[in-house]
UniProtKB/TrEMBL annotation:
Catalyzes the oxidative decarboxylation of 6-phosphogluconate to ribulose 5-phosphate and CO(2), with concomitant reduction of NADP to NADPH. Homodimer. This is 6-phosphogluconate dehydrogenase, decarboxylating. Pathway: Carbohydrate degradation; pentose phosphate pathway; D-ribulose 5-phosphate from D-glucose 6-phosphate (oxidative stage): step 3/3. GO terms for molecular function: phosphogluconate dehydrogenase (decarboxylating) activity. Keywords: Gluconate utilization, NADP, Oxidoreductase, Pentose shunt. It catalyses: 6-phospho-D-gluconate + NADP(+) = D-ribulose 5-phosphate + CO2 + NADPH. Residues 183-474 form the 6-phosphogluconate dehydrogenase C-terminal domain. PROSITE patterns: 6PGD (PS00461). It comes from Corynebacterium kefirresidentii. The gene is gndA. Its EC number is 1.1.1.44. Belongs to the 6-phosphogluconate dehydrogenase family. The keyword Signal does not apply.
Length: 483
């Protein structure tokens, strides 16, 4: 139904797949929604195909669109992230009045969101960068939404976003994350965790397929079973679906027909770069981004495959198949736990750096539904932060420490097996090194400090007394205190 005279509670600019699904979700949940797209064909197509789903107010100019919104006006931008977002913000800020709210629901880089918020605030309007997860399906049926921006805009925006968000146990998967770029920041880290989660699932598949010699359909059954336990999650569920799927053209397992070069749109890379900038060791996320890059290095890979690089003496797998499958399950759980723990570390560091005061319990709550990393074990993460909001690391929570007691030996066995078989398992292996580094009483960082002092007089600290010291390496090797 469309009504040109009715004022809309919310507007959507940009009616490609995400924007039109989000608009339909608003309309289906009883909101009157104003819709506008740069090329009017998409607006017409939406109204024609889905106009009966609720109350839409279509416009062909941005001015008409703004005029069709009730005050304070609220408009969500769902256009291609980057220059298009800036262009639409400028048009909206021009046409809107003081106190109106512009929301960017695209995948913006959080530093762009911080800049945009300042610019829009200087023009007297509110700007909210909102991370939206769940893809097309989530946008239509209930995404997880991570809005940043000023707290007062949440007062007006909250109820309307709650009406379309996913809902778990009566709790909507949306809450105010923090000021300016906080929402897009946590959405970025969410995507980084998603990369790591997908990679560890991929590594488990690789080991079962080429280590245990199992067929994709058989592995699909294993993943189905895993989905009823600790690993219960959307990504495990869809993995079983993909592995069970046959290619409609050849009848071969679909996974064998798909080119093994993983794409990426950039949010995993942003998460890794930000981890480096903040000095947070998000090894699982970074390795996952590198693993996708390596998979797409097709020229190097084909050169290396032509027998150029020795594999070493590959041993047959000398374990019971059922035991190996269970070991792989536990290794997957452990590596996934590390990825989440590191992701929450990055959020904590970002929150401190930018003064956002992000509550990790909010994320563990709203990520339980709608988003790609939704998983049963987020309840456990929530409980961990409920018990201790200042946990030094998620894996130090008593529950997860207990889990790691059961996971550590299988995890080590799987990394050994992967190494012996010459099968790549970059996140399984690097997460284990991260874990052992955290546990280690002494790290080779002491030696590195010695090397740095040798070649660059960078000085070092001593374990037995305060101060900063240097050895006269090129002279008599005496110790001097520099500070
Ligand atoms: P796209 O990212 O493909 O963008 C297409 C839309 O941008 C169209 O409506 C297009 O209008 C509009 N647009 C462009 Br391009 N340049 C414009 C300009 N200068 N002025 C006004 N409009 C302009 O759409 P999408 O896949 O629906 O994604 C929308 C946003 O949601 C993106 O930021 C994306 O990163 C984010 N996101 C996507 C997913 C997903 O699963 N696809 C998930 C989560 C978030 P036109 O029709 O006139 O060309």
């Amino acid at each position: 139904m469309t009504d040109k005279n009715e004022l809309a509670q919310i507007g959507v600019v940009g009616l490609a797949v995400m924007g039109s699904n989000l608009a339909r979700n608003f309309a289906r949940n009883g909101n009157t929604v104003a819709v506008y797209n740069r090329s009017p064909e998409k607006t017409h197509a939406l109204i024609e195909a889905h106009g009966e789903e609720g109350n839409f107010v279509p416009s062909e100019t941005i001015e008409d669109f703004v005029a069709s919104l009730e005050r304070p006006r609220k408009a969500i931008i769902m256009v291609k992230a980057g220059k298009a977002t800036d262009a639409v913000i400028d048009q909206l800020a021009e046409a809107m009045d003081e106190g109106d709210v512009i929301i960017d629901g695209g995948n913006a880089l959080f530093t762009d969101t911080i800049r945009r918020e300042k610019d829009v605030a200087a023009r007297g309007k509110h700007f909210v960068g909102a991370g939206i997860s769940g893809g097309e399906e989530g946008a239509l049926n209930g995404p997880a939404i991570m809005p940043g921006g000023p707290k007062e805009s949440w007062e007006t925006l909250g109820p309307i976003l709650e009406s379309i968000a996913a809902n778990v146990d009566g709790t909507p998967c949306v809450t105010h994350i923090g000021p300016d770029g906080a929402g897009h920041f946590v959405k970025m880290v969410h995507n980084g965790i998603e990369y790591a989660d997908m990679q560890v699932i991929g590594e488990a598949y690789q080991l079962l397929r080429y280590g245990a010699g199992m067929a994709p359909a058989e592995i699909a059954e294993v993943f189905r079973e895993w989905n009823s336990g600790d690993l219960d999650s959307y990504l495990i569920e869809i993995t079983a679906e993909v592995l069970a799927q046959k290619d409609p053209e050849t009848g071969a397992p679909l996974v064998d027909v798909i080119v093994d070069a993983a794409g990426q749109k950039g949010t995993g890379r942003w998460t890794a770069i930000n981890g480096l900038e903040l000095g947070v060791p998000i090894t699982g996320i970074a390795e996952s981004v590198f693993a996708r890059a390596l998979s797409s290095s097709t020229a190097q890979r084909s050169a290396a495959q032509e027998g150029q690089l020795p594999a070493g003496t590959i041993k047959e797998l000398d374990v019971d198949k059922a035991e190996f499958i269970e070991d792989v399950r536990r290794a997957l759980y452990a590596a996934k736990l590390i990825a989440y723990s590191q992701g929450f570390d990055e959020i904590k560091a970002g929150s401190e750096e930018f003064g956002w005061d992000v509550d990790p319990r909010d994320l563990a709550t709203i990520w339980r539904g709608g988003c790609i990393i939704r998983a049963k074990f987020l309840d456990r993460i929530r409980a961990a932060y409920d018990n201790n909001a200042d946990l030094p690391a998620l894996i130090l929570d008593p529950y997860f420490k207990g889990e790691l007691e059961d996971l550590i030996d299988p995890w080590r066995r799987v990394v050994v097996a992967a190494t012996q078989l010459g099968l790549p398992a970059p996140v399984f292996a690097s997460s284990l090194s991260y874990y052992d580094s955290l546990r280690a009483e002494r790290l080779p960082a002491a030696l590195i400090q010695g090397q740095r002092d040798f070649f660059g007089a960078h000085t070092f600290k001593r374990t037995d007394k305060p101060g900063t010291f240097h050895i006269e390496w090129s002279g008599n090797r005496s110790l001097t205190q520099t500070d």
